[in-house]
Amino acid sequence: MKKVLQNAFLALSFSALFAAAPLAMAADHGEEHGGGHGAAAAQPEISASETMREVIEGNERFKMNHDSKYYEPFQNSQSPVLTVVTCSDSRVHSHLFGFVPDNNIFVIRNIGNQVSNAAGSVDYGVRHLPTKVLMILGHSSCGAVKAAMGDYSGETASIKKELDPLRPVIAMDDQSGEFKERWAKNVERNVDYQVDYSMKLYEEKVAHGDLVLVGAVYDFNDIYGQGRGSLIITNINGEKSPNMIMQHPVMKDLTRGPVVTHVSSRVQ
Ligand SMILES: [Zn+2]
Q1: Who has greater pLDDT, 59 or 8?
Q2: Ligand 1 centre from 88 Cα, in Å?
Q3: N or C: which end of the chain has fewer CB within 10 A?
């Protein structure tokens, strides 16, 4: 992690760069749209040509801020410390971790942050690189979870194929209470389910202490009450109780104060 901390200051300038980009500002269009599955929020019309102009000009700015030396440490091989399986949702990006993701985070993304839909990629991160932490990262208002809670029979065959594995998660929902709360709980249940699924794949590595499985939710709706943008850890190696998570060897020596605000559960 020393490498990660050394790069932390770069993350700040990187974020500032994105904050200044016109597309980043244009993308601020409400909190409730469900990743293509929920009610559409009003958003500005941006043509394909305008998008490509932003992409090319944005890359020019990126190049200006990253000289040749930036790439030297990793130009021939990668050495990430973290494998993350997260959702393709455009509101979720690795800058949430606060350090430069380059050469630090091996990211696998699909709708609903599912291990079974990307098992080969996850194997690559865990067995070949190999990182010592595999994180399953869900998020507030996940459109894939919302879609799986309803009737998605009208979706394309490919989308249905990727939503079907969420059925066991939704089966745990007792259907009581408000939809928003059920949705939030199902997001966390999905994370737990993916961690349990990973435990079966990597049981031996976990048992030998070579791998830690972490379940987390990126909470940009302040559902867990720790402020928007919080990373909430809900599971370690299948342990879902916040008290037990706090006592896990990988957590117990961390500074107590900040850690407490990052461990929680809505379903336990
Ligand atoms: Zn999602």
Answers
A1: 59
A2: 6
A3: N
The rounded Å distance from CA 60 to ligand 1 centre is 30
116 shares its domain with 232: yes
CATH code of the domain covering residue 182: 3.40.1050.10
Q: Is residue 36 part of a domain?
A: no
pLDDT, residue 256, reads 77
Domain that holds residue 66: 1-31+45-77
Query: pLDDT band at residue 268, thresholds of 50, 70 and 90?
Result: confident
3-class secondary structure per residue, 138-158: EECCCHHHHHHHCCCCCCCHH
For residues 84 and 207, membership in a common domain is answered with: yes
Residue 149 φ/ψ, nearest 5 degrees: -75, -15
Instruction: Write down the pLDDT at residue 8.
Output: 43
Do 87 and 218 reside in the same domain of the chain? yes
Look up the pTM and report it.
0.86
Residue 173 placed within a domain: yes
From the CA of 37, how far away is ligand 1's center (Å)?
10
Task: Work out the widest C-alpha separation in the chain, in whole angstroms.
Answer: 56
Nearest CA among 190, 175, 173, 168 for reference residue 235: 190
Rounded to the nearest whole angstrom, what is the distance from the C-alpha of residue 175 to the centroid of ligand 1?
20
Residues 228-253: tens digit of each pLDDT? 999 999 999 999 999 999 999 999 88
| CB of 234 closer than 8 Å to CB of 192 | yes
What mean pLDDT is predicted for residues 175-192? 97
Q: Is 252 within the bounds of a domain?
A: yes
Residue 27 lies in a domain: yes
**Residue 109 alpha carbon to ligand 1 centre in Å:** 10
170 and 148 in contact (C-beta within 8 Å)?
Answer: yes
- Distance from residue 255's CA to the centre of ligand 1 (Å): 30
